[in-house]
Design a protein that fits this description.
Blueprint: H1 10-30, H2 40-51, E1 61-62, H3 63-73, H4 79-88, E2 100-103, E3 121-124, H5 126-132, E4 142-144, E5 151-153, H6 162-166, E6 168-171, E7 176-179, H7 184-196, H8 202-206, E8 219-221, H9 224-232, E9 234-240, E10 242-248, E11 252-259, H10 266-278, E12 285-290, E13 299-303, H11 309-319, E14 323-329, E15 331-334, E16 337-340, H12 343-384, H13 386-395, H14 399-410, H15 414-421, H16 430-455, H17 457-467
Antiparallel strand pairs: 1-3, 2-3, 4-5, 6-7, 8-9, 9-14, 10-11, 11-13, 12-13, 15-16
Helix pairs in contact: 2-3, 3-4, 12-15, 12-16, 12-17, 13-14, 14-15, 16-17
Amino acid sequence: MMEQYLPAFLEEVVGDRFGRYSKYIIQDRAIPDVRDGLKPVQRRILYAMYDGGNTPDKPYRKSAKTVGDVMGNYHPHGDSSIYEGMVRMAQPWKMGHTLVDGHGNWGSMDDDPPAAMRYTEARLSPIAMELIRDIEKRTVLFKDNFDNTAKEPVVLPSRYPNLLVNGVSGISAGFATEIPPHNLREVIDACVAFMDKPDMTTAELMAIVKGPDLPTGGIIMGEEGIREAYETGKGRMYIRSKTAIEDVRGGKQQIVITEIPYQVVKARLVNTIDSLRLEKKVEGIAEVRDESGRAGMRIVIELKKDADAEGILAYLLKKTDLQVTYSFNMVAIVNKAPRQLGLKSILEAYIAHQKEVVTHRTQFDLEKAEDRAHVLEGLVKALNLLDAVIETIKASKNRQDAQNNLVVKFSFSERQADAILTLQLYRLTNLEITSLEKEHSDTLKKMQQLRAILDNPKKLIGVIRDEL
């Protein structure tokens, strides 16, 4: 057969292919979902650990096992990208609250690499369980994994506002995102206040969330940039190290640094300051030492006699990473598309997600309770007609026949007849009969409460508030 060639323009082919690639990178790789604040690889790691029972109440488990589970079931990419995602979630100087509780060498603030995954061990941290809580109650959608052998969650229930609490940074095609970590307590207070008063302004919210709460400490200079970022999603702030000038013996002074800006590598900072001393860019530095240890961070810059400590500190803030600018760029996926979000829209999206989660969970609990009440009704009725029921069962040929006879003779439903046939003999005691009746009335009460939550948006909000 002669081959048929269709002419195609390079621009169109490349444009189409690159468009598909960009869509994938933006939606399914580098940018977090606004509802749970996780990128797909992070969500898959947490879900795989939860699914495998690698929870805080059990011993640590090899990281390689988790990485293998994630790669085999949910994430058909390289093991290094999965392990790096896992490492980041275990490093307390990168996350507001670590989601993975690591055991072994997980790297350091000096940018030391973590040990290979065959050496380290991990399990979920307690707060990660709050991200996953209620997932088995049909609260979130599940989708097929890449080879249709298992299901994975599209988003986690995320019972606290993880996007703001842990922050995120990522670069995709045409979009980047940079959200700093915030204080858990402040963000939850803001959520609660916002649910009570949905027309709050950003300024009112900023009375509760003063600004980011960076895991490495430091001082944020000025709030103009923060206000702009919370209004529009873009802005910049200055982060300065926590420093003190101390007098030491012999009339000398030293500058002591106890907290450095977020995302600054400590070893690199110390080297930069030391090279300024060696190149004599600034006079008066005698020695630079990193004295950090178990007691916390401590970098000491020893000055020569009669050196101008204030002047040297000002020079270092200007020329080194003792002070850095941080640019907010709060981009997240909302309804499958990337959007630049201010503080209000992030909280709005989170609260809408929680309403969905709690509604689905309440419906699930209600169905369970309705089923249980139906069964209990049958049992209570059967215990009142006990002798006739036993006669009927004795006269039947087999189990199926007995079930049919109960349905026909006493108009039980099939579900009730089945429950009656699995009833154990000890349940015929006096005590058990009363406890069945009590359970029945309790279940009816519970159903009433669940229906009230579903019927009343105010009650729904109340449930979310109490749980937060």
